[in-house]
Amino acid sequence: MTKIGNFQPPLMQSYLSVTTFSILLMLFTTAAQSQDVKVAAVVTPRHIQLNEKATLELTISGRTQMKHISSPTFNFLPNFLVVPLHSETTPRLIDDKIAVTMAWVYELIPQKIGEIALSDVQFSYQGVPYFANPGKIIVGAVDTYVNNTTGGIHKVTVEVSNPKPYLNEAIVYRFRYLYTTVLPTLEPLTPSLPKFPGFLVEELPDEKGATVRVQGTTFKVQEYVRRLYPQKTGQILIQPAQLKLPIKGNPKTLKTKSVPLNVQPLPEVGKPTNFTGAVGEYNITAQVDRKKLEVRKALTLSLQITGSGNIKTVTPPRIPANSGFRIDHQNFVNTTNDNTRVYTYVLTPLNVGILQIPIIEYAFFNPNKHTYQTTKTTSIPITVLPDPNDVIGSESDFSSWILWLLLLIPIIAGVGISGYLLYRAKSKLHSGSTMPDTPMTPAAQAFSALNAINSDAPDTESTSFGEALTRNLHQYLCERQGIPYRQLNTAEVQEICTHMGVSDTILKELIDILTKCEYHRFAPVPLSADERKVLISRAEAIIHHIEET
Predict the structure, then answer these.
(1) Peptide bond into 45 cis (omega under 30)
(2) pLDDT score recorded for residue 395
(3) What's this model's pTM, rounded to 2 decimal places?
């Protein structure tokens, strides 16, 4: 009897053998394919500045098929921002089989300074993960470069002398290039400074060859200096300055920080009326080309203003008017000194005698003391002589007027004798004696006029009284100065009193009396006899003080 089952064991054995071989073949093929896959992550360059960018290139290659390759995954935050640039696939034929290489390119933007280790990048093929590590990147400050080969340090800095200046105040801007080793290049280093909008700019000499020590390291220094004058108030941001290092194959650009300024307006409190905008510290002096000349001849007055500040904004000083001179327009004189301005004036004396070129003031704001100040010249006496041409003209007519004199002598003698006899006759009619007929001094004339005002009828209008008292005081001041009488303003009264050496107290008293008279002239109110007497007594006291001075 034959059993069918005698054939079953051999068939079963064959089936198990084939299955085992297939599984082993598949495992072997997968292992072989895994060994053919290669991945890479490359960063270039590995030493960058904070304002530069690096490139990351990722590749996977082998006898692979595109449909089984996934995009790589990684995360470099917060150290870098990553921006994808492009990707590409390159198929190749190797041993009659297709091999594929895929590449992804990214841009790395650094977010902080230091030596940064990048994390792994993960690739995936047929669900199997593959890893590659990009390594490290050194990110330097935007203002510093360290040469890995030589160890040299190169850096830039910027500073201003005052971050809170006043309007038109001078501040110094310094851009510095510091280095420990000289770059191996023949190209010159030229910084790119900002444009400085909103400033007047003066270029000062550059400084080279100095050394400084910073945090234990000695640097050589090249310095580029500008003097700035802010022309507007408020917040101003000076943009960064740059310096390109011509390093062969990999030039570097160093960049400073921006510089914020807070420009303050000039204070209104205490501002003089003659202030014209000069900021700094100044001094004014005066000199003339001669101190003795004939009347109606011209002399030259030179005013020199010297100081520290924006000398370009210095304006010509004003000479007080009514000083006995005719003043022509000023002229600016160029000088070799950048801190000096010289202005010349042509002055023509109008009267004979000793005239005074008055004190001339110049106001400025001192930012160091946070206050307004005034610098002054000293008065200059000028001796004015008569014009000799006038004398010559008189001598030319000597013969003619001498004849007239000879003809007039008898007539003059007769009139004189008659007058004398008439005077003797009238003098006998009076019991009292009279004062000799001598010229009265300005003070005597003023006292006489004041007495006349005081003796006027008490019902005289306030307007007439104020006009009379003002005219009397003005006439007295003019005669004391030897100038024809005219109405004076307050500035002219102050000028005349200053020339005579009158004290400030007496000057204030005089100005107060004139002010009250002006009030009664243009806004008359009833004025009692006692008020009139008080004003006249005050005027007499002032004249006494001036005469004593």
Answers:
(1) yes
(2) 47
(3) 0.56
